[in-house]
Specification:
Blueprint lengths: L1 H10 L1 H13 L18 E5 L2 E4 L4 E4 L2 H4 L8 H13 L8 H13 L5 E5 L2 H16 L3 E5 L32 E4 L4 H10 L4 E6 L2 E2 L5 E2 L2 H13 L3 E5 L22 E4 L10 E5 L1 H4 L24 H16 L2 H20 L4 E6 L2 E6 L10 H5 L3 H15 L1 E2 L6 E2 L6 H13 L1
Parallel strand pairs: 3-15, 5-6, 5-7, 7-10, 10-11
Antiparallel strand pairs: 1-2, 2-3, 4-12, 8-9, 11-12, 13-14, 14-16
Helix pairs in contact: 1-13, 4-10, 5-10, 7-8, 11-14
The structure holds pyridoxal-5'-phosphate.
Length: 430
Amino acid sequence: MDGYLAEYKKRTRTSAKIFAKSSKLHVNGVSHNIRFYEPYPFVVKKSSGKNLTDVDDNDYADYWMGHWSLILGHGPKQVKESLKKQIEKSWMYGTVNEQTIRLSELISKAVPVAEKIRYVTSGTEATMYAVRLARSVTGKGIIAKIDGGWHGYTSDLLKSVSWPFAESESSGMVNEEKIVSIPYNDLEESLKILKKHSKDLAGVIIEPVLGGAGCIPATRDYLKGVEEFVHKNKSLFILDEIVTGFRFRYGCLYPTMKLDPDIVTLGKIAGGGMAIGVMCGKKEIMGFADTAGKKKSERSYVGGGTFSANPASMVTGYATLSSLKSKKSVYSKINSLGEFARKEITKAFDGRVAVTGKGSLFMTHFLQNGISEITNSAQASNCDTQTLQRYHFKMIAHDGIFFLPGKLGAISDAHSKEDIKKIVLASENF
Ligand SMILES: Cc1ncc(COP(=O)(O)O)c(C=O)c1O
């Protein structure tokens, strides 16, 4: 591995200097904890199509793809053109604009539950408001989330994210007892926990494919079982589709599983690479956020922010979704590339790995501790995560391939089968 470290340092000399400056100015040198990796992250100068180019002029085929937000690749023409046109008209109004309405018309047609929508500027805000809304609607306090579920940095949901789940993720948290955690894909155990808290259960928040914690699809029976319990209990079922929305098909994943969420959160792809978070849901639920004529004690005060529904994010979101709508073959292409990646990487490692995921998302787990399949984040966390880090780092240092070390990969329309074959070859060499 020392050889790869030396190779990386040799190829990224300018990045090293610039990152040293960044470290003086920023905590850990970064503005999102996960963007740091040892010895220092390369510094990006530009991006285009499938590639990131660093300040030393190294190109990397990118599978991080802007936190998985860039389904069409970096800087796709149609999105760039829309943004240029908008910039001519200016990029921040702070008032009602038609760009927002156009995006909402697309979302509400593609996501049937989006009878009412509120925009924010990050997924973190969308899930934070979804939690508050669930508490307002039900008059109850407890929110259940998944062991390993990541919904952003909201103080409510920053619990049981990383192994060991029982340990608090951060100091400075309050009312942690109001968040309970259930094991993914284990309906019996999850229902036991939910029943224990049923009286004060405001809602459950779940990703249909567990993202950061292992790229693990939920079974339909699991999600349906949780949803049925939640609805019988008069609590709310919140689906976090910030990663999965518009990722596998034009729309959300939940209709394909015949689920009936009350609130859905979106982000990432829906903003086409600009800042966005979307909270949407059934009219009667979202109606609680309507402030007209309500006393403070009756309303749920959620949503917004200075930059909410800014026209720049609205047009990049619109250009991305309308491109996907008019060219649905993007999905068959990237989904089958994902299938190919899972199969061929598993083969390259002679079955010593499990490659999880769905459609264009995939993640390699180095099996150990008797684990033979990955259906939840406890299993993912107990695989050999150090080898995963080394595998990803080797590809950055040696193969011109970028996965954020330890994280899942996302294939975009800018990638080709040849690109995936390069990952397979790099895997064989590793
Ligand atoms: C499932 C899920 N929910 C919420 C978030 C938070 O979104 P953001 O980073 O835009 O705040 C993320 C971010 O990765 C996510 O993966």
